[in-house]
Write a structure and sequence with these properties.
The protein is an alpha/beta fold. It has nine helices and 14 strands. It is elongated and about 65 Å long.
């Protein structure tokens, strides 16, 4: 991946004034952190750490820096997939990878509750892991969420529904709208959803190319992971009108036409990343390049805001 394709705006955060291309930021000596966001990864001057909103972008930045002979830079990304972020942490390319959980087991449990007539919470954010070379063998560092308490309570209250040994003969048909498109995170979601559904003999789970097909075949629940907001909203609204439960996973639908949303809180992901960056840089702080995704994305804006908050920087 060429870093010239990394979509981010050029800004200077913290105690530095905003500047345009070709201008130098005004430095405040009292600032611990200087965050420089780069359009193409072609940053000037010394950089202590690169934080990317995606592990693949962090990896690309590390490779580009290596090819140009830049040393002493740490790289942090968001993703935490086994064959990407975790692999690059093991190899020492990334100093840390912040997991963006699929929430697959939670999504299947909420779908089963909904199909059984039990209303799940409208939104659930699964817990997050931080992976470094030091904690990888132990399964990473867990960052708990208050939602875990709600989940634990639901699972205990409805253990008769969320059981692998049901006493009823009803089988609920659940389908994932398969819009992979080569997205590694979606591929991981599909694999984990399939495995989570197999725990329950009262669930028949498969993948179909469209919401419309699942509606036509009268499925009990539909799971969607929208790539972009509102693309699937109309179809999901139709599914809800047919009393089909809609579980949105990972990415926002862009409307309220769903039964339950299961996905990481982007603000928390940014805060967790900021906390890890602060640990890596130590008390002295340092200069940071932040590589975002599309700046118009709500999730991108929230991750950026959480990152700044964790570092104690004012919002722009």
């Amino acid at each position: 991946m060429n870093l010239r394709h990394v979509a981010a705006s050029l800004l200077v955060a913290g105690s530095f004034a905003a500047c345009g291309d070709g201008q130098k930021p005004m430095q405040d000596p009292s600032a611990r952190y200087r965050i420089v966001q780069s359009v193409d990864g072609q940053w000037d001057g010394d950089v202590d750490l690169v934080f990317a909103h995606d592990d693949t972008v962090a990896f690309a930045a590390a490779e580009a820096s290596k090819s140009k002979g830049r040393t002493g830079i740490q790289f942090v990304g968001i993703g935490g997939l086994p064959d990407q972020g975790l692999k690059w942490v093991v190899e020492g390319v990334l100093a840390a990878s912040i997991e963006q959980p699929t929430g697959a087991e939670v999504a299947i449990d909420m779908a089963l509750l909904a199909c059984s007539g039990i209303a799940p919470p409208r939104r659930i954010a699964p817990r997050v892991h931080v992976y470094t070379k030091a904690n990888l063998a132990a399964g990473g560092e867990v960052v708990p969420r208050p939602d875990e308490v709600v989940l634990d309570l639901l699972r205990r209250q409805h253990a008769d529904v969320l059981t692998t040994q049901p006493t009823i003969d009803i089988v609920f048909r659940m389908g994932l709208v398969d819009n992979d498109g080569g997205d590694p995170w979606f591929a991981a979601l599909r694999t984990e959803l399939t495995a989570a559904a197999k725990r329950y003999p009262q669930i028949a789970f498969d993948c179909r190319p469209s919401v419309e097909e699942l509606i036509a075949q009268n499925y009990n629940a539909i799971l969607v992971a929208p790539k972009e907001g509102k693309v699937l909203a109309a179809a999901c609204k139709e599914a809800m009108a047919h009393d089909i439960k809609v579980i949105v996973v990972g990415r926002e639908l862009g409307s309220d036409d769903f039964t339950c949303f299961v996905g990481a809180d982007p603000m928390q992901l940014g805060e967790v990343a900021g906390g890890q960056v602060a640990r890596l840089l130590g008390p002295a702080g340092g200069t940071i390049v932040e590589l975002q995704g599309p700046s118009t994305s709500h999730a991108t804006q929230q991750r950026h805001a959480g990152f700044r908050k964790a570092l104690g920087l004012k919002q722009p």
